[in-house]
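Hey, can you fold this one?
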Amino acid sequence: ATPPILETWTEHQHFDDYWRRGSIALDYSAINVPTYLIGGWHDSYNSPLARMSDALNVPKKTLIGPWGHTYPDMAAPTGLDWAHEEIRWWMHWLKNEDTGIMDQPSVWAFMPDETARDALPDPIPGKWVSASTPRSPTRLTPHLNSDQTLAEQPRDGAPLTTPDAGVVGQTKPEWLDRLPIEQSYDDQRSLVFETAPLDTDIEVLGHPTLELRLSASQPVAHIAIRLSEVTPDGASSLVSHALQNLAHRSGRDAPAPLEPDAAFTHRIPLSLTGHRFARGARIRVAISESLWPLVWPAPVPAQLSIHPGASSIALPIRTETSDQHDFPIPVRTSPAPPPAAYEPVPPDADGRIRIVNDTPPFAYPAPGVGTMLSSSTTETSEIIEGQPDACRWTATSTSSWKRDDWDCALEAGYDLTADANTFFLREWLIAKRDGEQIFERTHVSEIPRRFV
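Sure. Predicted structure:
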């Protein structure tokens, strides 16, 4: 009875009523209870923490730790004795006991000295810092200059164009789970601006924000921004990023085509981040039109032109000196697996790039039941450089359940392609019993593209 859900999601290509029903951002006042906001720096869903922390008008606390899309007590190699903190919270609010939890700093954030990709599987070096808000109000605002430097003094000149140098995005191919790798491969294919070597350490806490004067060559275009730390040996590590459809520049609920080559000013917040840029390193901003396979390519290859001197990035510099507070939650360490290894895939003789991401079958028992559960996935992304209509996403996911003489399995999959005007989507579901297929359903749909 499962509906073809990917068709539904693909049909709703901007912030319409379908998405609004799930958004608390339309009415923060609907939350009227004390709230504890918890997230991790390398969880792609951490940015709402700052928005909610600013908007909620209730007693609140915020904690951001050195982990990904998981819970503090399950995080590795560095986690927390989260039950300790939960007990203090619930005893305070449910039993009116003075645990002191609301007398302590409202925000705790781990300030990393390295990115997760650089440190794992070892613990990420850094420290816990306290703050009054997860957005540091102090700003360092270097300009994007005509000599491709990031510097305090603006230096204007002719617009600089993103290079037509192939597919950009393989160093961060996934929204969640797979950490980005070293960024030089994509930096070389992007328009890059960077500071001189830093004279001192700089700690950022909050949303870096890019103020751009730019134009695009096509009515539909994206902009991808990657903020990195470049060490003296030249390695580039991703600290924060942003990805936006510029047809949504006036709001995600009101897409409209761009006027080709017409300049406009646009403000783009990057993802929430906390990071220490080390003395001697450089801060780099890399700009590209695409970030594939994270986002479907624009209907027609597009280039962006950035007006130097009139564009800048505001970095939220942490200046609060409230570190005299002792971090109140016991820290736990446990072994962690190394992050997933992958390398950018070069184009073949035909210019085709093909990325395959397989998760082999993994079987595990359901405790106390005796059922063996297993799951596996295969994902493939393809594109030909310069040919967005050659983009293809395909995936299959298989789950099985076995106990005694009971053996059943389900396979769900999709295949997505497009031309300049239409998405072509095929979804299927196959059921098997004892290895024999007993059910199959395929749903095919054609979905008009609406400024994507």
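The chain is about 10% helix and 40% strand. Let me know if you want another pass with a different chain boundary.
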